[in-house]
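Students often ask why inverse folding is considered easier than folding. One informal answer: many sequences map to the same fold, so there is more than one right answer. In these notes we will look at a single instance of the problem. The structure comes first.
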């Protein structure tokens, strides 16, 4: 029977005169994301998704192996930096967490995954899309979103067949995520018969793109794809406007946030930007996702940026595996987690394949109109 979201947790153990009550089991869930730096708004969004799940688990009732559970969230900041990410991972291992949700970026998730693997601690990333993450053979690595092969390839095809792009330029930020999704996008463009007229790169801390954009302007691109995050995409869009580059702007999930119009300082034209989120819900499932977003806004006084619902689901899937295994011991619940099939979350149905990837992962295509993100379609 599938573990439901609303299941309880008991009060702390009490030792009273002559009566000994069984002590609650404490289950520590680690979460890592960039809660400082340029994409702190995305990291906080992810962390809040984990906190929402943990608070629900503690507010409702659950037992594992017949014992009451107290859930604790150990949140760490990796600042989207690989070195800080591995340090955060080691800190969680030393704290003897029962499982980890994270990291946000592929560039931090991949190196951290070896540390969790060596310690035998299950890790579910809600947002790392680089294919390498689940191709290192680590039995502890899982993700609840589609990878860059699907995401980048779909966007490349869309740029050619739907946006009718003839001259397409590609820029990436040289991170594991940005470079990976840009490469898959370029492959998708070529497979669809498109023409990549320029291939440039920057870094994830850059703010001045004048030289890159000026060089690309002479090639007359009608579509520019950026592999990176919204904190860089926003200034890039502003400078495209200043240089008079009238091109569609595309990107993966990293730019696909509600903050992008603000970061672009109001320079985005309607239907200029197209992006894809590595996940998505269509049909009746949308009701559950919208209910989550409403509850999230009420709890945190903030709109969902991108991946909070996936973090929430990842946390609940991990808890579900513990309940089914009758144990929070990583060695005991890991085999159950790996066999997760048909878990109905707020982001849709979650089942893992033999690599730890989600089966039949969805993508949601978006554009922006009136300064707000607008869904175009969910594709699989």
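Output (designed amino acids):
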């Amino acid at each position: 029977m599938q573990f439901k979201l609303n299941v309880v947790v008991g009060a702390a153990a009490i030792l009273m005169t002559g009566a000994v009550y069984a002590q609650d089991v404490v289950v520590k869930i680690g979460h890592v994301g960039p809660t400082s730096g340029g994409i702190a708004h995305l990291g906080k969004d992810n962390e809040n998704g984990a906190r929402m799940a943990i608070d629900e688990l503690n507010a409702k009732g659950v037992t594992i192996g017949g014992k009451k559970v107290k859930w604790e969230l150990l949140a760490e900041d990796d600042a989207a930096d690989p070195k800080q990410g591995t340090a955060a991972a080691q800190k969680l291992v030393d704290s003897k967490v029962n499982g980890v949700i994270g990291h946000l970026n592929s560039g931090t998730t991949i190196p951290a995954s070896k540390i969790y693997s060596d310690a035998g601690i299950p890790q579910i990333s809600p947002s790392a899309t680089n294919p390498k993450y689940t191709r290192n053979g680590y039995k502890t690595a899982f993700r609840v979103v589609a990878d860059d092969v699907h995401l980048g390839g779909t966007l490349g095809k869309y740029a050619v067949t739907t946006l009718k792009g003839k001259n397409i330029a590609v820029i990436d930020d040289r991170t594991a995520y940005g470079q990976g999704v840009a490469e898959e996008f370029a492959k998708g463009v070529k497979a669809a018969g498109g023409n990549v007229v320029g291939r440039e790169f920057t870094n994830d801390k850059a703010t001045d793109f004048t030289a890159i954009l000026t060089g690309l302007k002479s090639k007359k691109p009608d579509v520019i794809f950026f592999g990176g995050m919204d904190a860089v995409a926003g200034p890039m869009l502003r400078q495209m406007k200043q240089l008079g580059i009238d091109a569609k702007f595309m990107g993966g999930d990293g730019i696909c946030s509600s903050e992008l119009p603000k970061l672009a300082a109001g320079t985005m034209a309607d239907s200029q930007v197209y992006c894809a989120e590595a996940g998505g819900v269509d049909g009746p499932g949308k009701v559950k996702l919208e209910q989550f977003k409403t509850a999230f806004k009420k709890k945190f006084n903030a709109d969902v940026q991108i991946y909070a619902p996936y973090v929430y689901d990842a946390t609940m899937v991990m808890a579900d595996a513990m309940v089914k295994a009758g144990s929070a011991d990583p060695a005991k619940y890991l085999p159950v987690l790996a066999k997760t099939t048909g878990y109905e979350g707020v982001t849709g149905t979650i089942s893992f394949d033999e690599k730890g990837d989600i089966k039949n992962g969805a993508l949601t295509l978006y554009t922006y109109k009136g300064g707000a993100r607008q869904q175009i379609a969910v594709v699989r």
